[in-house]
Amino acid sequence: MQAHKILAALIAFSALSGCLSTVGDTVSRAGDTPDLRFEAPPGMQRLMSPAPHNFRRGLVGAGDPVRRGRVSERYELREGDCGGSDCAQPRARAELQMRAEANPARIGEDIWYGWSFYNATVPAFRKENALRLVFGQWTMGGTNKPIFRFIQLGKGETSFAGCDPKVCNTRDPSKGDLVVQLEDIAAARGWGDAQNEGYVCRLFDLEDRRGQWTDIMVNTNFSTGDDGYLRIWVDQKMVCNYAGPLVSAQSAAAGTTPGHRRGIYSSWTKRWTKSQGDRRRPSLIVYYDEFRTGTRMSDVDVRQARAADLPPVD
After folding, report:
1. pLDDT tens digits for 177-207?
2. What are the pLDDT digits (tens) for 139-148?
3. Measuring CA to CA, which residue among 184, 203, 218 is closest to residue 105?
4. Does 12 have pLDDT greater than 70?
5. Continuous segment of H or E residues that includes residue 29
6. Closest to 86 in 3D by CA, of 49, 39, 128, 133
7. Is the dihedral of CA 254, 197, 170, 115 positive or negative?
8. For residues 131 and 122, is the Cβ–Cβ distance under 8 A?
9. Closest CA to 170 of 234, 265, 263, 261
10. 148 three-class SS
11. Cα(112)–Cα(293) distance, integer angstroms
12. Over 80: is that where the pLDDT of 17 sits?
């Protein structure tokens, strides 16, 4: 009898120690101190991404890819992951968002962003099964649509070649499933096929760049008027040079500032469900590193930082 009691106690303890909980923005095992590997970087917090694997620190010693220094950001999205209102919608995410007090962006003011991106497992999709994956977005929050976002299209989606050149600006209209969409201003102005639904630029092909770092820089001013701009460089080559409004009057009146989110956001899963039935969605893993904001290119260019031997973002 005593042996049975000891065995039951061991089983209960094992089950308890295996339970994972979310404490603020740090995930830990129940009863333990928070595990700093799962702690969001300074100025960031988890956004409806409660699973421990949704975000953790990538470490050189653990075999993770790191652009510079010792640490990167690892995001993983699996079948069934959801949190908050996502669970009642056709969406899921492994995503962090910038805290309001850490956000330097303002409507109508020039700002630069730079970071490195690594695609570990994301495949190409067809139009019929695309998960509408978002790898970075800027939004006023609430019910407002994203000002702009980096979204993966399915093969054969949209027509950059037929888009109004005053709206679409891309160096290669035929290649690259990762594109930029101006969703907020597209909805406010009723942009349709003639404006490519707000998909203004192709950036690069995700599958072509699996297993390697891609350096990205963005320069914008989040304007509501024709003096707005969105300029994007990939590996120091300009791939997008949009000129025009980015923010709708409704979003500008929200009383907030353009907030940044990054990770993996599956914004629409109904296509997959309709075309694939019960087939599980693939597990997706990406890394980000060296995320910086600034007032000029040299503040955010990881290659200039490396050449100048500046400290890495760890």
Report:
1. 999 999 999 999 999 999 999 999 999 999 9
2. 999 999 999 9
3. 218
4. no
5. strand 26-29
6. 49
7. positive
8. no
9. 234
10. strand
11. 6
12. no
As a whole number of angstroms, the distance between CA 147 and CA 105 comes to 12
Instruction: Report which of 116, 313, 134, 110 is spatially closest to residue 234, judged by C-alpha positions.
Output: 116
Secondary structure of 67-109 as H, E, C letters: CCCCEEEEEEECCCCCCHHHHHCCCEEEEEEECHHHCCCCCCC
The two three-digit tokens of residue 204, written as one number:
């690069």
- In terms of pTM, does the model score above 0.90? no
The tally of CA atoms less than 13 A away on the side-chain side of residue 26 is 12
DSSP letter, residue 282: P
Average pLDDT, the chain: 89
Find where tokens 């956001």 sit.
265
pLDDT at 227 over 80: yes
Q: Which pair of structure tokens corresponds to residue 147?
A: 């000002």
Can you tell me the distance from the alpha carbon of 231 to that of 252, in angstroms, rounded to the nearest whole number? 21
Return the H-helix or E-strand segment holding 174: none
